[in-house]
């Protein structure tokens, strides 16, 4: 007989032999015992974890000729001796049809399947269709199968195995029972490999088998395939194959995790040269930069989990959360714990983020070596940055004066985990100014990450003094103020040097002006044209005590006023004159005569001001609509009408009407009903008697 690979030779034939899928096998066994058989099943999950295997075992159990509870079949497991079980196991059963859906994915193949499903099974109890890689079937083919899935004949059962259940239409999933398979745990894979090594007569130590189990990455079939390859390449000792850890690593193209432990130890020592030397040795040995980055990402993830789980380098194996999340051998658990002891949880998170980005970039970069070396060098640089929480903890407390200069970062050269007070000394701040209130104790220079797990931000309320003499006039404190504070700037997950920034401060967060401390005046210049708030009750006190310390007020001004503000600033007191009204009327009539109705309406609704033979028109049009409505022809007609009226220049402004200006009634067009109504003697007498304004004129005359 030809040689069978381990994945086929040791393929489970009973529910009890399936490893790591107890939630599926127990449910199916109970369903068989209670005769609660569904007409459709979907088995989804990771590759190589037993989806198709369980489908075959279920088919054997359904078509087994021995009834459950008999001597030949005491449980719901298939008997494995009857003709149906042996044929299904051999793959030549007539009534169990296994279809590769990746190849037979079209609507024609599904129509043939649907037509064949109408006929009763040839010999067995059920006709069973096993569709492997079912997500490859097209939507049209699934739609052709919907009616059969919803109301199938009593003798038909569909089983679909897929790695991407989300690609199966919801209408199909709702008609089937869905079982989601789990990735096989490392302990279960290791136990299966140990048993198979004993059956095959292979000498292998626990570390070699653990390496094979880790390489499987939750897939039993992948682990068995790698083990089969390792046995074929292993040296023979006393007639037995001997699996060695170094030989398996060379076969897989990986490097020992001790290399990454050495690299991260050099990162902790701030030794860039050692990091680059280790990377150079790995790359010169022929290792792929992408594979090295992948291994580094995995190692950093294990170190981060070891930090979260609180593993000790000298402790026992991981338990609880660590045992669930850290699926590696005990030796690798201790190695990850040793690396985790050198860094904080936040630093390991930053390292993992940088290496993940590096791994992604290596997929489309040309010089992979340089990008991998740059990624490792970034890890060294990250150790030199000051966390923003630690920087904020070094700021003075509420009533102290702010530092004279921005706080700078310090280079860390520690070989172990660095307390902030040892490796990052706080920069000495200038002495605080005299205050009328008792000073609060200064914050200690430590990282809140180590002490405060709630991650509360420290207060940022250091007052800043200004000189009243530097202001052009007494300054009124606005209801909302901003105070310049040194704030640490962050880019991504890293912290950088501090720079002054504006922090909003509400009036409730400040004591009364009378209680503010005095400090050395710091001149602040304000633009002369900036409008300030109205004088408040504190102006008198500021004039009496010019050196009183005040927070910087918020100056809500604009360096470039809008057109409406420009008109209001220069001509706010000026109301539209009769000349402006006449010019507006002339332009509107000219545009109306030229059949530019949109432009005429816009000019009639605009706010007109005449100044030195210049007409400034504040329209209600936006910046986008103004050139559309007032096109070149309309603008040419308007300028010609203004020249006839003695006005040489026309300026069109966008936006709303000028502030403070009332909306005028639109000038009546010559010959219109409104113009005739305004000329009527009764209307003129009513306007004069009641000072009335005609807004709307309705023509009630009967049409001729």
**According to CATH, what is the topology of the domain at 6-180?**
Rossmann fold
CATH superfamily of the domain at 6-180: P-loop containing nucleotide triphosphate hydrolases
Overall pLDDT: 75
Helix content: 40-55%
Structural class: alpha/beta
Structure description:
The protein has 704 residues and is of the alpha/beta class. Among the domains are: 6-180, 3-Layer(aba) Sandwich (Rossmann fold); 186-252, Helicase, Ruva Protein, domain 3 (Orthogonal Bundle); 257-382, Zinc Finger, Delta Prime, domain 3, CATH 1.20.272; 563-667, 2-Layer Sandwich (GMP Synthetase, Chain A, domain 3), CATH 3.30.300. The strands form four sheets. It has a five-stranded parallel beta sheet with strand order 2-3-4-1-5, covered by helices on one side. Strands 6-8-7 form a three-stranded mixed beta sheet. A hairpin with a 2-residue loop joins β9 and β10 (494-505). α9 packs parallel to α11 (245-252). The longest helix is centred in the middle third of the chain and has 21 residues, at 289-309. 31% of the residues are buried.
